[in-house]
Amino acid sequence: MATRITERGCEVSLRWRNRASKLAVDWPRFDPAVMDISFVFKEEGRSHTVEAIVSRRRQQPVVARGEGPDFRVALDQLDEHVKRILKRDRSRRKDYRHMPSGVQS
């Protein structure tokens, strides 16, 4: 799985790059269709933002954002959002696949 990190208006230390890579390694556990992850780090004034674009096989990409006073808070927020989205989408697909054939919703 490929992971890309982009910096906009800031320099991201090796510590935050490694943290983002570790988060990216965990996300396929919640949805095995994850193929590619891109992180975009932004710093505007006192606001630090991290955005993730998670590409998946045969599905729309997941785009999530975390924001906070530093990159640690932003990455924690981002991790929670991505996990919640991946879990929800995967459970929806499973529920639909295992629905009895005569039942319509």
What do you see in this structure?
The protein is of the alpha+beta class and 105 residues long. The protein contains two helices and four strands. It has helices at 14-26, 71-97; strands at residues 2-8, 34-44, 47-56, 62-68. The chain has a four-stranded mixed beta sheet with strand order 1-2-3-4. Helix 1 packs parallel to helix 2 (71-97). It is elongated, with a radius of gyration of 16 Å. The model has no long low-confidence stretch (mean pLDDT 88).
Task: List the SSEs and their pairings.
Elements (H helix, E strand, L loop, with lengths): L1 E7 L5 H13 L7 E11 L2 E10 L5 E7 L2 H27 L8
How many DSSP-defined strands?
Answer: 4
* Radius of gyration, whole Å: 16 Å
Can you list the strand order of the major beta sheet? 1-2-3-4
Count of helical stretches: 2
Helix-strand topology string: EHEEEH
Largest sheet: 4 strands, mixed
Structural class: alpha+beta
N- and C-termini, Cα separation: 36 Å
Summarize the structure.
The chain is α+β, with helices and mostly antiparallel strands and 105 residues long. The chain contains 2 helices and 4 strands. Strand 3 and strand 4 form a beta hairpin.
